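Good morning,

Attaching, inline, the backbone tokens for the sequence recovery test we're adding to the shared suite. The designed sequence is right after.
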């Protein structure tokens, strides 16, 4: 829905705040709208905050944001964005799911910032849509909702679903919408106000590519790492990996040592353990199943490797997460 003032239709965007939402993602979404109004000298956008009960909501950084409305209030909204953050799977209010489904039935555009996509998925509102979520939550949402089409792009706009990763990715999505709705000149001017050197599009990926992190182009190294990431449940032997990319084992080891400062087996183990940590913190998958899903032959072996890297065994990691100790 929108209100018309003169020749300009004002779009009303609402932001539903889940406890421990990411403040950076929230502000990155709102400030481009404010700047678009300021630079155009028109009220192109309005925004409101919503909480499940109308009470203020505390972000993951401890900053408390007041809510303008509750889910029980009548809303005049063009789009509603679910703002998630850490532990979204534990902290969102289940009462919001039927509310979101009602909004979808009314053809309100539904969006998500950071981990807000998890809430839309729980409401069964992302099936058949292309969507995205913060990269740390890929493993958890895929385990919980294996039928979803989840990309690793910064944001996805698929019909009436607007989803994006956290951090400053919401700014990129809003700049894209401003450009689409009001032209590239305004979007570029907003971008320049925030010292943003370019407007990234939805084809930009979330994580910094390995070739940028190591500062050079090493196609054989990229290929080796890609194979590792694609074969976590059944890890490839180093000789097999070398054969696939057309290098000797010794050549491959030299590449990893020179550009990543570790041996290939250590790097591969780190990838598998990072995936395991995501599953431990974001799903209820039994520890033994987590171990097998990440290529470990037994739970004790998994626990030993996990403790060496993260300082605590998997069971303790999950216990701390359940009690909130990992946030301290």
């Amino acid at each position: 829905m929108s209100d018309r003032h003169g020749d300009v239709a004002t779009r009303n965007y609402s932001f539903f705040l889940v406890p421990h939402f990411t403040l950076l993602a929230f502000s990155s979404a709102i400030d481009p709208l404010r700047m678009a109004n300021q630079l155009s000298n028109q009220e192109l956008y309005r925004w409101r905050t919503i909480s499940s009960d109308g009470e203020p909501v505390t972000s993951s950084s401890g900053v408390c944001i007041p809510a303008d409305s509750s889910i029980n209030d009548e809303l005049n909204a063009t789009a509603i964005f679910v703002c998630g953050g850490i532990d979204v799977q534990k902290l969102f209010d289940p009462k919001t799911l039927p509310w979101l489904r009602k909004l979808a039935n009314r053809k309100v555009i539904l969006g998500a910032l950071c981990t807000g996509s998890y809430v839309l998925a729980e409401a069964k509102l992302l099936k058949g849509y292309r969507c995205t979520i913060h990269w740390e939550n890929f493993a958890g949402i895929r385990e919980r909702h294996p039928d979803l089409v989840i990309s690793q792009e910064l944001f996805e706009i698929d019909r009436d679903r607007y989803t994006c990763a956290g951090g400053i990715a919401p700014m990129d999505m809003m700049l894209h919408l401003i450009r689409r709705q009001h032209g590239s000149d305004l979007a570029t001017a907003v971008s320049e106000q925030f010292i943003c050197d370019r407007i990234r599009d939805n084809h930009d990926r979330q994580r910094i590519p390995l070739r940028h992190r190591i500062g050079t182009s090493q196609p054989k190294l990229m290929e080796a790492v890609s194979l590792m990431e694609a074969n976590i449940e059944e890890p490839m032997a180093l000789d097999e990996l070398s054969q696939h990319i057309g290098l000797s084992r010794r050549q491959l080891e030299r590449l990893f040592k020179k550009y990543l400062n570790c041996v290939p087996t250590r790097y591969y183990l780190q990838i598998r353990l990072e995936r395991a940590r995501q599953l431990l913190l974001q799903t209820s998958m039994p520890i033994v199943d987590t171990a097998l899903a990440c290529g470990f032959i037994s739970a004790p072996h998994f626990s030993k490797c996990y403790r060496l890297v993260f300082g605590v065994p998997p069971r303790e990691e999950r216990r701390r997460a359940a009690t909130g100790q990992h946030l301290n």
